[in-house]
Every structure is written in C-alpha cells, then in structure tokens.
Amino acid sequence: MFDNEPNYSSYSLDELFDAYSSIDKYSFPERFNLIKKIIAEKQGGDYQCPKCKCKGYEAGQLYAAADRLESILDYETGKYVTISCLDCGFTELYKRNSSVSAPLVDFFIT
C-alpha cells in the first residue's frame, strides 16, 4: 500500500513555500496547516503576527518610485522589506536603508 502523504518535514523552505502557494487550503486543510506549521518551525525566530498570532511568515521586497519620471528612469526612492503572515496575509513594511530598521531587516532576511 502506498502512503500518499508527503513528508513536508524533509522539504526545504523554498519547496515548502511552493507547496504553500499551490495547495488548495479548502480541499486539504490539514496539509495546509501542517505546511504552515513546518514553515514556522524551520524559520525559527520570535516572529508572531500582531493580528492573528501565527508564527509563519514570508519575507519579500518592495521598491517604490516617488513619481513618473523616477519610474521611467528606473530610479528607486524607497526600498522596503515586507514581512507577510502566512495565515492572514497581514503585511508589515520596513524601510531598508534606515539605520533604525537595519537590525530588524537583518533578522528577517537571514
């Protein structure tokens, strides 16, 4: 007999995020919650969503231009790190080139 349950604990974080983004959470709620739990465990750290208390997150980047000319010239005036909760999607923005947020950015990126 074949075991159809994937062994998510052996997945890398990239593979887990791929599974997280492609799984139908309504058809497979147990697997979806297991993936979120394993992502949170592998990420470690002290992150906790201020809205829903989930411990899993996805880090990203956002670049913003102040006006049309800057966007045409591909000049970036704002560089931000985004931290998005895996459960509710609540997203926090941290300015990347600010010395105050540098330790926080380093914590989430590493």
Label the overall shape.
elongated
Mean pLDDT: 77
Annotation field: number of helices: 4
H-E string? HHEHEEH
- Order of strands, main sheet, comes to 1-2-3
- Residue ranges: pLDDT <50 for 5 or more in a row? none
How many strands, what sense, and barrel or not for the largest sheet? 3 strands, antiparallel
Strand content: 15-25%
Radius of gyration: 17 Å
As for the number of domains, it is 2
Number of beta-strand segments: 3
What structural class results from the helix and strand content?
alpha+beta
Q: What gap, in angstroms, lies between the N and C termini? A: 41 Å
Helix content: 25-40%
Protein name: DNA-binding protein
Pfam families: Zn_ribbon_13
Summarize this, please?
The chain has 110 residues and is of the alpha+beta class. The chain has four helices and three strands, in the order H-H-E-H-E-E-H. The termini are far apart.
Q: Could you characterize what this model shows?
A:
The protein has 110 residues and is α+β, with helices and mostly antiparallel strands. The chain has 2 domains: 8-44; 49-110, no CATH class. 35% of the residues lie in helices and 19% in strands. It has helices spanning 13-22, 29-43, 68-72, 102-109, and strands at 57-64, 78-85, 91-95. β2 (78-85) and β3 form a beta hairpin. The longest helix is centred in the N-terminal third of the chain and has 15 residues, at 29-43. The termini are far apart.
Name a few traits of the molecule:
single chain; 110 residues; alpha+beta; 2 domains; three-stranded antiparallel beta sheet; 4 helices
